[in-house]
Amino acid sequence: MKADPDAETVVSAPRGADGRARAGSPHGRRGAARETRLKGIPVSPGIAIGAIFDTTEAPAEAPRRSITAAEVEAERQRLAEAVAASRKQVAKLKTRIGVLPEEAQEELSPLLDAYAMMLANSRLIRGARKRIESDLVAAETAVQDEAESIAAAILATRDDDKTGLLRRAQEVREIARRLTRNLTALPFRALKDIPQGAILIAEELTPADAALLNPARIAGVATEEGGADGHTAIMLRALGIPSVLGCHGLTGTARRGDPCVLDGTAGTVALNPSPATLAAARESLAAFARERAKLAKLRRLPAVTTDGEEVELQANLEIPAELPLIAQAGAQGIGLLRTEFLFMNREDLPDEEAQVAAYAEILEAMDGEPVTIRVLDWGGEKDIEALAEGIPALGGPNPALGLRGVRMLLKRPELLEVQFAAILRVAAKGPVRILLPMVTIPAEVKQAREIYERVARRLRRRGERLPDPLPPLGAMIETPGAALAADAIALEADFFAIGTNDLAMYTLAVDRSEAEVAHLYDPLHPAVLRLVQFSTEAALRLRMPVSVCGEMAGNPRLVPLLLGLGIRSLSMNASAIPRAKQAVRSLDIADCARFARRVMEQSDPARIQELVMGFAEGLTERA
Ligand code: PEP
Ligand code: MG
User: Fold this and answer.
1) Ligand 1 atom closest to 549 (CA)
2) In the CATH hierarchy, which fold is given to the domain comprising 69-184?
3) Which pTM value belongs to this model?
4) Domain PEP-utilising enzyme mobile, which positions (predicted)?
5) Is residue 282 marked as binding?
6) How far apart are CA 247 and CA 270, in angstroms?
7) Domain-wise residue ranges, the chain
């Protein structure tokens, strides 16, 4: 699951920090177009062959915009935010250039230092700040005007070193472009114009950006940032777009139009691929299609072990566009409906009617299959503009440890009330369960239940017919605290869904979407497995339903271990269901239990990985 994020070979022309070939570079444009192979984290399987579409390319000049005096402070704030974002990006680029050839490093390092200086209290920033007020213009207009004025002054200097002057002027314009891009940053909303079959590259893609991608147009995605189980990765898997994240050196090497082969299974990006790489990729594409056709045949077969134990295989849903895929995959319902999609890419909050319509559509599409709806889980990387304003603490210094999930909902109970009411109003359309995210103490479930029952009473008074008893209210177990207190939380909750993505992140203190520490993110770490085991046993002792709905559940190699730990319900990306079913149908529960006992005796994650791979290979050989 992990990959060495270093570049294997990097044969590229030195570029500006934005990835454009530098003027006067000895390598010039595209050079000899030798194949360049970069490695990253494989997050969404499949092969893509296409041309690079580089979103890191600076936009054409942002349109000039005037403002009123009342808007000056807000524009200055926007400028300050864009400066901070640019500074962070340049600092990151600086840590990344180590993967480039020495020659390129020597060229880029002083350039990035110059950029960093220009983003401190420089003439450019001071001048732009001033212009916002004196010229009453928007931040991007002020930046562009100030940069042009500085560049013109540099070029008018009397100096024989004309190349040097030109270079300095270029640097000012370059940093102005970065600031402008950060100020006008809506590039992904314009992605409808992306050429058909392109491979999209970017420094970073947020989950909200990813939700806007059209899998029918985009053949593949690669980014510098990101980790295997971050929400962006989850979204890309959900859309079925072959993707490689955490691909260091990418934006400094690839450029728009470059031919590319992206392998989302191996985690590689080959730029200017050789004829041999292309031929191999075409062969893999065909093999992938054959495998998919084979797996599709499993759709109607039950998920039952060789000794007759039934296992529930459900789908996770992040956006309604996935519904047809869920039907094709033969899922037994939705085990995790992440409702964040309803709140993304909009400036206001969805009201009760809008939510009723969205949930009703999903329940109707599921045609009587159970659906577990998780109430809003606002987290650090899930950027919800409409909420950021109302709750400034959300953005705080450490959002993952801040007002996330149920904590935020209890702070803003009106959000929870609207969501509960909308879910209750559609509950007659099919079996529904409601799930609370990021629970850490039993009192959170208790308080949420009080609100839930209050909302139900209000709806009944209004004449709404609600199921009796009300749909079950469950808790995500996704922090070590919740896992270790699972027996106490079990007394308040009706069911558990174990979220191994956050559980691994919080247990190992590793950001699941951070490429730099991706090598440490390991759901097979014994600490994570012990917490899964502990919370599963707490639920089973009370005969309470428990499922695993983190990305672990969708890895067929981990199915024997999870079954061996007592789990009988798994919820995963729809496209993972056929392989998980294949695994279930080849397993014997007693074997799984023995195997799990052996794994749980280990303390070394590498040894556990070895055991898991060995068990899976044994199964393949027997199949
Ligand atoms: C998890 O944390 O494992 C989970 C399923 O929730 P999410 O990925 O949406 O945070
Ligand atoms: Mg989670």
Assistant:
1) 5
2) Enzyme I; Chain A, domain 2 (1.10.274)
3) 0.77
4) 194-267
5) no
6) 11
7) 8-57+190-273, 69-184, 302-622
Residue nearest to atom 4 of ligand 1 (CA): 499
Q: What is the CATH code for 302-622?
A: 3.20.20.60
Contact between residue 578 and residue 298 where contact means Cβ atoms under 8 Å apart: yes
CA–CA separation, 412 vs 577, rounded Å? 36
Q: Please state which CATH class domain 8-57+190-273 belongs to.
A: alpha beta
Residues with CB under 6 Å of ligand 1 are 234, 336, 338, 377, 478, 499-502, 549-550
CA-based torsion, 116, 64, 67, 345: positive or negative: negative
Identify the active-site residue in 27, 231, 519, 592.
Answer: 231
Residues 6+ apart with CB under 8 A from 101: 10, 11, 12
What does the alpha-carbon distance between residue 240 and residue 47 come to, in Å, rounded to a whole number?
A: 11
**Which residues are 434's β-sheet partners?**
373, 473
What would the pLDDT profile of 513-572 be if each residue is shown by its tens digit? 888 888 899 999 999 999 999 999 999 999 999 999 999 999 999 999 999 999 999 999
Residue type, 68: T
The single residue listed with the structure tokens 């926007």 is: 78
Question: What is the 499 CA–ligand 2 centroid distance (Å)?
Answer: 5
Q: Helix or strand or coil: residue 1?
A: coil
Determine phi and psi for 258, rounding to 5 degrees. -60, 135
How far apart (Å, rounded) are the C-alpha atoms in residues 379 and 408? Answer: 10
